[in-house]
Amino acid sequence: MSSAKNININLKIWRQKNAKAKGSMETYKLDNVSTASSFLEMLDQLNEQLINDKKEPVAFDHDCREGICGMCSLYINGRAHGPDTGTTTCQLHMRKFNDGDTIFIEPWRSKAFPVVKDLVVDRSAFDRIQQAGGFVSVNTSGNTIDANATPIPKQDADKAFEAAACIGCGACVATCKNGSAMLFVGAKVSQYALLPQGKVEASQRVLNMVRQMDEEGFGNCTNTGACEVECPKGISLENIARMNREFLKASIK
Amino acid sequence: MAKSALLKSSIAKKYWMALTGLFLCLFLAGHLAGNLQLIFSDALHFNQYALFMTSNPAVKLLSYLTYISILFHAVDGFLLTYQNIKARPIGYAKNNPSKNSSISSRNMAVLGTLILVFIVTHMVNFWAKMHFDENMPLQTITVEAMGQKQELYLTTNEGYMPVAQVAKSYEDATKTGAQSYIANRTEFYNTQAKVKIGEGYKDLHKITVAFFKDAKFGLIATILYVIAMAVLAFHLLHGFSSAFQSLGLNNPNWTPKIKFFGAAFAIIVPILFAIIPVYIHFFLK
Ligand code: SF4
Ligand code: FES
């Protein structure tokens, strides 16, 4: 059923030498791109062309290339992870584009995600938020109990699982007009808050994670709902509401 | 820690935005009920209502709460917007937000600022006149007896004071020999005894009708008012249901109902507000 064909495209890509350099949008022409190739393969093809021309290849993040690591992070034609919903950039294919298209490729734009080079941004702000409370403290000195020994209502387990599907890609921040990280933090707070193991430290967790989130310079959520639409893992706004409830509970304690 | 978090954190700002916003929605409903009397009631009842709204202690408390809410909502909103602009120092060369969010939700600050401008002009035009204007007229009626027209002030104890016998001030009364005079803007005093004999109604009805029927500015005032209500509708279209999300209420059972009610509120309330000046300008005799 191969209906693949080759297309010629124009690319407008953000180029920035390093974190301090100014950077600008550069235009490239790329011919004979198979519509069967993935978006990242198309960038590989561009980089080969650039290397052959003795030019600096475009730096972009990627790792698993199967939608699970959350490394790929491109703002394509004005949308995080490109025109598809429910997919990461690495799951996007060139069949979504037409011959002669001009494709804009930009890095995530957020004060908390500074550009390292070209399309690569530093998302360690997410790691620091996670370190501020995204864990449960358990004693592992030989007497750990089997996780399944603690009964958990199926409904809660499902919701926790859905929240835990967040891969920390940062598309929510990138797409939010306020550069808010609330969907990510909401998911991380929720995945623990819903489970008995997480309830023990729930108060400190939400206070610490929210404080870290604010300190990193993310913006304030105004409930536009853009994050939920663009999140490749379909994380729901319900998680932000749950975080707000958890935060209120913890604050008045 | 917890205390400062309730004031400073990004989530706390959301709560305050939501709480003040919802309180202002209640205020809108109450204000609308009052305004609708301009269509469905007469001048006396409207002015009686206006007197009640400016003198009843419980209403006074509510009005102070309203002023505070407006101020807090606006200041918090400006603060949020400022921080949110700072959170993205470099914007996108190409952005396509219409694919993932509503136009109202993305323009709350602009809509809110326009509403604030409206509130200020609205208060200058009506609220300030009602509260501070020395020349605020008192309500009168004209009666005809034996072919003679006579103008009478209406008093709050359902009595009448012939306008011709009431001077504008004590000094005027001593000069003209009028039996009574007006003091403290609304109170009628007997000139000889200098005792209060009654109180009139500030004629807010007359001021309002004159404002929207004004030969020069009535039409433009009506149009601007309708535009302001459209702006309000868009602000509420996002704001109403957004407040519940901020307060942590989002579940499959309630959220669709809240969204439906919010949309209905956002459309119906501004339309009803807007109908009133349109009615006054074009249809009121
Ligand atoms: S919530 Fe969604 S968009 Fe945000 S980091 Fe997690 S997976 Fe990515
Ligand atoms: S490269 Fe791992 S999710 Fe895209």
TrEMBL record, chain A:
Alphabetized GO MF terms = 2 iron, 2 sulfur cluster binding; electron transfer activity
Please give the PANTHER family that the UniProt record associates with this protein: SUCCINATE DEHYDROGENASE, SUCCINATE DEHYDROGENASE IRON-SULFUR PROTEIN
Domain 4Fe-4S ferredoxin-type: start-end pairs: 157-187
The alphabetized list of GO BP terms reads: aerobic respiration; respiratory electron transport chain
Indicate what this protein is called per its UniProt record: Fumarate reductase
**Top-rank taxon, per record:** Bacteria
- Gene3D superfamilies given in the database record: 3.10.20.30, Alpha-helical ferredoxin
Cofactors needed by this protein, per the record, are: [2Fe-2S] cluster; [3Fe-4S] cluster
InterPro entries membership: 2Fe-2S_ferredoxin-like_sf, 2Fe2S_fd_BS, 4Fe4S_Fe-S-bd, Beta-grasp_dom_sf, Helical_ferredxn, SDH/FRD_Iron-Sulfur, Succ_DH/fum_Rdtase_N
What the record says about family reads: Belongs to the succinate dehydrogenase/fumarate reductase iron-sulfur protein family.
UniProtKB/TrEMBL annotation, chain B:
Task: Work out whether the entry's keyword set contains Transit peptide.
Answer: no
| Source domain of life | Bacteria
Keywords annotated in UniProt: Membrane, Transmembrane, Transmembrane helix
GO CC aspect terms: membrane
- List where the protein spans the membrane: 65-85, 106-128, 217-237, 258-280
CDD domains, sorted: SQR_TypeB_2_TM
NCBIfam families, A to Z: sdhC_b558_fam
Name of the featured protein: Succinate dehydrogenase
